Amino acid sequence: MLSTSHLNEETIRVLFIEADPAVAEMYRLKLELDGYHVAVVADDDRVLEAAARTRPDMIYIDLRASDDRRFATLHELRATTATRDLPVIILSNVGASELTAQGYNADLLDYVVRAAPDLNGLNWNAEEWAHARSG
């Protein structure tokens, strides 16, 4: 599902990985109202394809501590040249220490974990995140 907004050079492109259609639509609408171009992908098997097609500036991913497939998707994003240096914002109801306890390698990427993310918290620092690339 892609936004119909017009893109220009300053528009930040976001890839939003979320399996729940209602949640994805809520966040997509909020981000688009704030001026971002949003592509939503629900199927982990299509994340890399969607990233290649949309060329995002940043990625939001819904990550639950017990979701092994989503952790694998996160590792695939980091192992792929086109997405390796993209900022990834993790939306989660678990803290960083809980993610680490589940085997998540905290040195893999920079991340922000939000407990019970609200709509206004989605983009509080998105412009900086979108322009931050690992060096």
Describe the structure.
By secondary structure, this protein is of the alpha/beta class. The chain has one domain (13-131): Response regulator (Rossmann fold). It is 33% helix and 16% strand. It contains five helices and five strands, in the order βαβαβαβαβα. The chain has helices spanning 21-33, 47-54, 68-79, 96-101, 126-131; strands spanning 13-17, 37-41, 58-62, 88-91, 113-114. Strands 2-1-3-4-5 form a five-stranded parallel beta sheet, sandwiched between helices. Strand 1, helix 1 (21-33) and strand 2 (37-41) form a beta-alpha-beta unit. The longest helix is centred in the first third of the chain and has 13 residues, at 21-33. The radius of gyration is 14 Å and the shape is globular.
Mean pLDDT: 76
Q: Looking at CATH, which topology would you report?
A: Rossmann fold
Largest sheet: 5 strands, parallel
The SSE order reads EHEHEHEHEH
CATH class: Alpha Beta
CATH architecture: 3-Layer(aba) Sandwich
- Unreliably modeled segments: 1-6, 106-110
Count of helical segments?
A: 5
Spatial sequence of strands, sheet with the most strands: 2-1-3-4-5
What is the overall silhouette?
globular
Structural descriptors:
alpha/beta; five-stranded parallel beta sheet; globular; 135 residues; Rossmann fold; 5 helices
Spell out the blueprint of helices and strands.
Layout: E1 13-17, H1 21-33, E2 37-41, H2 47-54, E3 58-62, H3 68-79, E4 88-91, H4 96-101, E5 113-114, H5 126-131
